[in-house]
Design goal:
14% of the residues lie in helices and 47% in strands. With 228 residues, the protein is mainly β. Strands 1, 2, 3, 4, 5, 6, 7, 8, 9, 10, 11, 12 and 13 form a 13-stranded antiparallel β-sheet that branches.
Length: 228
């Protein structure tokens, strides 16, 4: 990949994340909530670093909290809000950060970027996926991931996706029973098929739980919203 082409793709990142202007605003309590966050490091965390997920522990949380699991490596961490963005495009952007500054970027609960995890998602074209999460009707269209390669280039992964609402389901998140609608999105890239799962509330406004593909190196990422 030429240096010019790589630079052009990197310059697209603010557009792909924001899509319609707007500005990133630091989360109001990001400084104080960082003590809640856990590290995404490769060393197994100690019991003191990763508290047991209990209803009492969740009740003690003062700000929104997201649990993230990287299926391939088994790494798990709790992340807290770092910054927010609102613009004219559907779905507000929130950057979640771990204690060691790794980041998961979600737009309306849809994964659109990662930082500090290795072979990250640099950016996405995710409007089809966002529409699928928020609409009770089937949605079809493209979904594109721009992932970082081991040579620090940018690799676009083009997929065609279609969604369906499977069933209403009560999910348990650390003892809390949440009524949700399971939305499945099937994406095809050549001969490969990737499945995305979203457990959303009845209005399609909150993704409580998800399983999303983050590229060939990172694999699947699971999220649980422990506290809104």
């Amino acid at each position: 990949m030429s240096g010019i082409y790589r630079l052009c793709l990197l310059c697209m990142v603010p557009l792909l994340w924001g899509c319609a202007g707007g500005s990133d605003l630091p989360y109001a309590q990001s400084g104080t909530t960082q003590t809640t966050a856990e590290r995404f490091g490769t060393s197994p965390p100690t019991a003191e670093v990763v508290p047991e997920r209990t209803p009492q522990w969740v009740a003690s949380l003062k700000t929104p909290t997201l649990e993230v699991t990287l299926e391939r490596s088994g790494r798990v961490a709790v992340l807290v809000p770092f910054s927010d963005r609102s613009d004219t495009t559907r779905g507000a952007v929130r950057v979640w950060r771990s204690a060691d500054a790794a980041q998961i970027v979600l737009r309306g609960g849809v994964l659109i970027g990662t930082r500090g995890l290795g072979n990250d998602i640099n950016s996405t074209l995710a409007q089809t996926m966002i529409a699928a999460v928020t609409s009770p009707a089937p949605i079809s269209g493209p979904h594109v991931l721009y992932t970082v390669t081991s040579e620090n280039g940018i690799r676009p992964i083009h997929m065609m996706c279609s969604s369906r609402s499977v069933e209403d389901e009560v999910i348990d998140i650390v003892g809390r029973q949440i009524e949700s609608r399971l939305v499945k999105v099937t994406c095809r890239s050549g001969a490969e098929i990737k499945e995305y799962d979203f457990w959303v509330d009845a209005h399609g406004s909150t993704v409580w739980q998800s399983r999303q593909w983050a590229g060939p190196e990172l694999g699947y990422v699971r999220t649980r919203l422990l506290k809104e």
